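Internal tracking record. Fields below are filled automatically when a chain is submitted to the structure queue. Please do not edit lines marked as system-generated. If the sequence contains nonstandard residues, flag them in the REMARKS field before resubmitting.
Queue: standard
Priority: normal
Entity type: single polypeptide chain
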Amino acid sequence: MTAPTMITHWQSVLPHLGYDLPPDLTPETSSGAVTAGLPLELVRQSVSAREFWEIPEPVLERYRSYRPSPLWRARRFEEEVGARVPIYVKYEGGNISGSHKLNTALAQAFYYHRAGFRELVTGTGAGQWGTALAAACAAFGMTCTVFMVGGSLRDKPYRGSLMRLFGAEVHASPSTLTSVGQSGQQANSLSLAIGEAVEYAAADPKRAFCIGSGETYSILHQTVIGLEAAEQLPEPVDVVVGSVGAGSNFGGIALPFFARGSGERLLAVESSATPKLTRGVYAYDHTDATGTGPVEAMYTIGSSYGIPPSHSAGLRFHGAAKVISAMRHHGQVDAVAVGQRTALEAARAFAMTELVLPAPESGHALAAAITCATSGVPGGATGDGVGGVARKGVLVCVSGHGLLDLSAYDRLLAGLPEDAPADEEALRAAVAGLRRV
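SYSTEM-GENERATED OUTPUT FOLLOWS
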């Protein structure tokens, strides 16, 4: 493998899209609290046509403790699954948060601290983002409050322990601290946890709400993944795979390849429990459960959709990032959905052969990578039928480790129940009133 140099700039995909992203809408009920405190540099990173953005030295200094992250050819995994082409793995689990989320958490904490805020508030699903933000806030002398999806916190209590180790306050969502939480709706929803964080942050001007995945600037910060991978690969690949909750992991690994125009197929892999890119609609929808934040153009199954419990964890979000959604709409990325059993079985196979336990989210990407390297049609997946076996090789991002997700693997070993497909009637009802793009 080629040893990469330290990446010193993030790369924006916006100059390479060939179109402008649809503008956000502001609902009449909005207080403006979500966007009013957004540091100006993050605003610029979301809308500017500038391609390369210098990573601030205080952020770069923190990156140096775990970047560049490793990339290797998973030969034993290839043999186990019968791959016809090489499978290369980019691994993001080697930092304190255990995931790629620290890349943007450090950047955002730096910009918010420079803007004068001293407390950041967020919602988290599986806990990787909450952990990353807690660590980043500690690094820059800030306090942190996290609303974590209650089911995930009960399954993974040590995620909460790790956040509290860094001084964060952690609340199971729904909580009694907000009116959104007291409504009792969407108990397993990341949208609800985000809604609680939005409301809680708006109650104090010293607080700022902070989001880890769907915004264009957070995806920009993740491009260090793909930029490193492009240097590390010893030979070309023709498929780049990443899992999608809102889109930062997939965007981080895939968009630098799109920007350089080398023609790889970019495959976004989502959970069949939240199939926004494969069964959703391209429409304007809320990013949270309060109905007060910006309304963005996204592929969505509806912010009111009742997401069932599953081990898809951090993929349990109703919509995809606006830049990923726009690229999907324009045919620039493909998408498939994978069930939790298929994902966990792929992750277990990877652990048994490569001795690295992936997060359940990454199991979805590994399942699709197996298919691309073997039959070309995502096995055990639902989606749009896009296929085509890889001819050169597959690059897949393992976005984090699964050492704090062992309850999911316990249930797999105990005979995890089969997945229930998303209810078509409920999906239709959740998007019925949305304005299509």
